TrEMBL record:
<feature type="domain" description="Solute-binding protein family 3/N-terminal">
    <location>
        <begin position="51"/>
        <end position="268"/>
    </location>
</feature>
<dbReference type="InterPro" id="IPR001638">
    <property type="entry name" value="Solute-binding_3/MltF_N"/>
</dbReference>
<protein>
    <submittedName>
        <fullName>Transporter substrate-binding domain-containing protein</fullName>
    </submittedName>
</protein>
<dbReference type="Pfam" id="PF00497">
    <property type="entry name" value="SBP_bac_3"/>
</dbReference>
<keyword id="KW-0732">Signal</keyword>
<dbReference type="InterPro" id="IPR006311">
    <property type="entry name" value="TAT_signal"/>
</dbReference>
Length: 292
């Protein structure tokens, strides 16, 4: 008996097969078989399970925002993920993680799709990146309020102590642009900011939207830091990625269409602007080249 659903089978029919066990896999894990000729296998699994499993990260505002009182998640990355799930008519299931563990989470089958990732060749050995970015960000440095740099070379000195998040693209950027500086990898953004507040670092490498949100905070009435976008400006594509596995072609096709639709109709920009406003980010402070 053919247990692989046809490519254009309705969602109701897919769910019916899943309920009777005829999809050849479990409802909450990856298929038992590692190969399949059906490009919609991953889509079938997500719909059958009824949830889209997605990563979320504490301290990664304004893309990921956790309400400490309720534990609820918001932010523009969650807006994007909920939109992706709504078309599939499934719920969101969040998995707390960090950038350094993302590839391992994909390999373990904990998550289906990640949003907000930057191109990373090491990570691309185990995940598939979508070909089109959702939007562009840029790499910046958060420095003490009275400091500013106009170029990366101004920081590229042995006496410069620059903090990055371990296993992140920030670490790659710092290694490439600041080979003479002292690069200090830390576990997460909260630890990086503690280094800044304590005066133990000259700069923290961050995506500019994240840095602007942090700089808007005040401690004892004073800004936490100032944001510089060093030249040459390094524009960073913000992308989606999925686990590399047989049968993910239909899922990738769907996500590619979703990305192009969201961008072309202005929905990405609208979500970003809502997130910037909620985070206290002044759009006028964002370099015009990034928003083009």
């Amino acid at each position: 008996m053919n247990t692989v659903p046809p490519r254009h089978m309705s969602r109701r029919r897919i769910l019916g097969l899943a309920a009777t066990g005829l999809l050849g896999g479990t409802l909450d894990g990856r298929r038992a078989d590692a190969t399949t000729d059906d490009p919609n296998t991953v889509l079938h699994r997500i719909i059958s399970r009824g949830t889209l499993n997605v990563p979320v990260m504490v301290g990664e505002e304004p893309g990921y925002v956790k309400d400490p009182a309720t534990g609820e998640w918001s932010g523009y990355y969650l807006d994007f993920l909920r939109s992706i799930a709504s078309v599939l008519k499934v719920d969101i299931r969040t998995v707390e993680t960090n950038w350094g563990n993302l590839a391992a989470d994909f390999e373990a089958g904990k998550i289906d799709v990640a949003v907000g990732v930057n191109p990373n060749a090491q990570r691309a050995l185990v995940v598939d990146y979508l070909p089109d970015p959702i939007f562009f960000d840029a790499w910046s440095v958060l420095m003490p309020p009275d400091r500013h740099v106009s170029s990366w070379s101004e920081l590229d000195r042995p006496e410069s102590r620059v903090v990055v998040q371990l296993g992140s693209t920030m670490q790659i950027v710092a290694g490439a642009q600041l080979p003479a500086a002292t690069i200090v990898p830390v576990a997460d953004r909260a630890t990086a900011l503690l280094e800044m507040e304590s005066g133990r670092t000259d700069a923290v490498v961050l995506a500019v939207f994240d840095a602007l949100q942090i700089a808007s905070r005040r401690i004892n009435g004073h800004p936490l830091g100032a944001v510089s976008v060093p030249r040459p400006m390094l524009r960073s594509p913000v992308m989606l990625c999925v686990a590399r596995e047989a049968g993910n072609e239909g899922f990738i096709s769907y996500l590619t269409a979703w990305t192009l639709e969201q961008r072309s109709l202005g929905m990405v920009r609208a979500s970003l602007e809502r997130g910037w406003k909620a985070a206290g980010i002044d759009v006028a402070a964002i370099p015009a080249e990034i928003l083009e």
